[in-house]
Design a protein that fits this description.
- The structure holds two protein chains of two kinds.
- Chain A is built from 18 helices and two strands.
- By secondary structure, chain A is mainly α.
- Chain B has a two-stranded antiparallel sheet.
- The chains are: A mainly alpha, B mainly alpha.
- Chains A and B meet through helix 7, helix 12, helix 13, helix 14 and helix 18 of A and helix 4, helix 5 and helix 11 of B.
Chain lengths: 401, 368
Amino acid sequence: MRKMKFAPTLVAAAVSTVLLVGNTALAGKQDATKSEQAGPAPLAPLGPPPIPPDNLQSDAKAELGKILFFDPRIGGDASTACSSCHEPEQGWAWSEDLSRGYPGTVHWRNSQTIVNSAYYGRGFWAGSVPSLEKQAPAAAKGGVAGNGEDDIMEARLALIPEYRKRFKEVFGTQWPLIQDVWRAMAAYERTLVQRDTPLDKYLQGDQAALSEEQVRGKALFEGKAGCIQCHNGALASDQDYHNIGVPANKRWEEDGLAQITFRFEQYAKGQTEEGYRTAKSDWGFYYRSKNKWDKGKFRTPSLRYTAHTAPYMHNGILYTLEDVVEFYDRGGFDEEGRTTQFAENKSKLIKPLGLTDEEKADLVAFLESFSGDPITTEKPVLPEYAPLFTRAELEAAQEAK
Amino acid sequence: MGVRVTNGRALLAAVMGLGVAVSAQAGEYPDIGPLPALKVDAAKAELGKRLFFDKRLSGDAGIACSTCHVPENGFGSKEALSPGYPGNGNFRNAQSVINTAYKKVWLHDGRIGTDLNDVTREMITEDYIMNMDMRIMQERLKQDPVYVEMFKAAGKNEPSNGGARSIIPEYLKSLTSRNAPFDSGKMSASAKSGMALFKGKAGCIQCHNGPLLSDQKPHNTGVPENFDVFLDPMNHQAFIAFAMFQGIPNYMNLKRDPGYLNITLDPKDMGKFITPSLRELKYTAPYMHNGTIKMLAEVVEFYNQGGGKDSNKSPLLKPLQLSKAEKKDLVAFLEALSGDQLTSDQYVWKGEYPAEYPAIDNWTQVRN
């Protein structure tokens, strides 16, 4: 199929928010929006991930999804799998500021971890997709990510006997269908959850699960530092969009390949001509809402598993949790005093915190309690191609012409 | 996309219909002869040349137009089946693009009947060919200072997707037959005899007529399938992706190339392919839509036997009973349709391409 990309529209975003039923949990988001008066939802142990009724979980489906997650044939030139940017050894993410891209490109945002992605109501940094089932194709087909097309990817699967067998078992179809690829991947991703962190244990009553330092950090998190205003609930994310003052990634000033992708993204995300000509930073949630007050807003990320997912922020400009705490302590400024290009949109919740060195250390220690051990996995053996027809069958067809 | 295909079909049908009306008068075929000269914009053609040989015009920057359209091979593919985009194969032989500017219908199945601008887009964006998101291509071009200059010289404000699509065809206009003995009147006696057979006993002119030596219409000549299309999953997946997207019925079970059926979905068009031009074929072996015939002498023998086996084969094809000498003469004539090789700097971009994209200076201050 020819490559034709359409920019996501506000209408699509609005509609999909309403139609979210059957995709993933909305609970966290509703909590957040109602939290203004009642105060933020308290931190809580993470429950089982929500399972959409139109894509029920099964072991066979998740196992198929795992193979597909690691299979680079789900991509344009059979070089780039999901796992290429969501590498288990790099926190199921990518440990550079901007994610690696499809060959010949670099991405323009930081790759987010797959771990606990099952709990988000919407995917990507600006929430452009309503479910894991929609995130997977957006990444596999995006020009600077997988750059695949439905027809060629589906055709490949048809020529791999083990996939034919597994898709038939799981989905009951004669041939693998591309839509079922995304469903299987989503099912696999729903198994990549971490619910036994020190914080989960502590919140379930195990007082010894956090150190004294971490307990002090928790009090700061919920009090003086105010982190909980956005990082709340079981996921430690209100799943809402905020401009916290992250400045543009300087790499765009110095790296020609990154400049290409930067402009492409303006184009691809439906910028106005003037916006395309003048944008010098990621406008974030604006690309979906097209409201000027949304420039520079990004979805609050979960703090879970962050011990393994450096660097941080939508553009990866902060390399350690210490850097992150310093950034907030300065009121949303980096060490050079840079902040968002859209200062008028910067959240009122962000102000200098006046933390002492000891408090900063306590906070970092507490942040580490959101992560358990790294989740590892044995990479699957990828099934091989086999011709669909025998020579004898082809000769018979030739004879019958 | 559905709209585009429908338009393509309608336009194509119009072109076809016209052709039928012209050549339906029994025994009358547009005469063969030299092609008219084309006016070429030098600055645009030079830019188009650089684009044609630039791998950065494909998704992963792995292949250029010239990867399949090889100058030494008459700007066609050396392999029976074109290499295709990395991670895939292909299911047809890339045709020569020499003289392509004269055509009214393009590709073996004739699926584009508008212009070379559309053909250019089709080749660059198709997933098993160059798999390029042209928005990324545009930004790559804007990042290369040489292109910025060349687009200006070609009268364009800045490099753009639409600009590239209009400029590559200008370069293709420069790829035309040069000094073919047939055109210059310097044919050997054997070639002259061959030409008489071509127009007479062998009946080639029934389809290979006009200055291009092609009626640009679909015919089934019974060319055998190239089994490598189906036995090599790399090729077969490209075929399946193509057939799926085009909406060809029963595509998973197809064991043959449907050809022009792609356009009409009418069973009577199964296995028809657009008559190729015979110009420059000295360089463009192997032959036929699937590259199954390696030498010109074998092509002549194929037709001498009345073509291949197919219940849908054109009634124009009958055993010819050519003598050995006649076949030789026919080959001599076919060879006289080829001119100078277009492999000099005039036609081939031989400069280096930069290994990296330089950053734009003062990026935060200049307009994108």
